[in-house]
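Here comes a specimen:
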Amino acid sequence: MPGKNEFKLKTPLPKYRTTETLVKNLIEYVTNGNFEVGDKFLSDRDLVIITGRSRTSVRRALNRLQDEGWIIRHGGKGTYVGDRLAEFKKNTSIVSEGGMSPGVDADKTYHALPTRKIFDPQVFEMNQKSTADSTIRIAVVVSTVVSALASFATQRHSWYHDEILDGIDEEAAIRKNIVVEFLGVHGMRTESLLPRLQRSCPDVFLCIGPPLSHASVIGVAKQWNIPCVLAAVRAPELGFPNFYEDSVSAARDAVKYFAGRGHERIGFAQVMNPSGWWAFDRYEGYLQGMREMDLEKAVGEGLWLPLLPTRDSINMLRRYIKRNKITALLSGSYWVIGHLAELIHKQDINIPEDISLISFDQNPIIKHLLGEMDVTTINLPWRDLGKAFVNMVQSIINREEIPNMAFPCTLSEGDSVRNI
């Protein structure tokens, strides 16, 4: 801060209840820092970095300073020195032509000043306006989804990240006080992400996708007292709010949809994904649906495939369909479509003449792999999830108890299901 003394902690901050000590340090900084009323003051982020304390602790101290008139906080513009400094200079008679004398005991002179009322209607109204206008910063890390299905070349597909972020953006446009900062993707070196997280100094850290590869960054965010939220993942054992899709109900309803169109021999195909909690939820929903429709004995079990199609996996799918005389197939993810597309290409089966199909995921690659067919799809609720996250972000910041939330999926009818 040009022309001003560098802020350093004169009194070490205790581990707990740091507000009073930090307030005293900041008052001494104001009174000995060659400031004038209206000068730009340290930001929340500056103080978090300097002190190593949470944004919540820093804000609590700054709110105290604002209540006492030492600073004025303008949402979206910054923090400025308040008129209490003018009172200080006038009442202590320590002003010289060159400015404030160094070494002033701010604690004593602060308490020598006339005490302001803690509750001042004007200050309270200003605080409310500042709080209403204050920016909420959300830092986002997403998983890296690498697909080899598009021309069997490595290609990144971020459709579900985009859906969540679009939902956040749509709701934030209404609120106008949400800033979303993209920090990186799972798989980046932790050393690259930690400085970004520190500079961002977010109010909330949103982790989209499997968190295990990013456990170290999540751990640091927790250590820095930044509230964390996991989106598009179900990992309640980590102790953070989890927002995810209700795959169980969606798969169960898909089976009932098939049954309502006369299908009894309904199959299920899924891929083996090491981070795919959703894979097992969708299979569980399929089994529930078959039991509820009294069809559990019509087909033995579901079929589990590798992520990428091979000659063996394609033959496995062919045998599974023919052996069980399947007339309808529930695809547990878009990865399955890569195997199915090979059978269609070889003209072993046709959709929907031979096999009716419902697929999870509204990934656009599905339509491409099936020759631009409009597939009956179980749409994952990522946009709704993003909107709900924004509406709950203040409760998350306030450390209110946030339950894990399973968002319902929706079914879009296409041309891939026929009646029998």
About this structure: The chain has a mean pLDDT of 81. DSSP finds 15 helices and 18 strands in the chain.
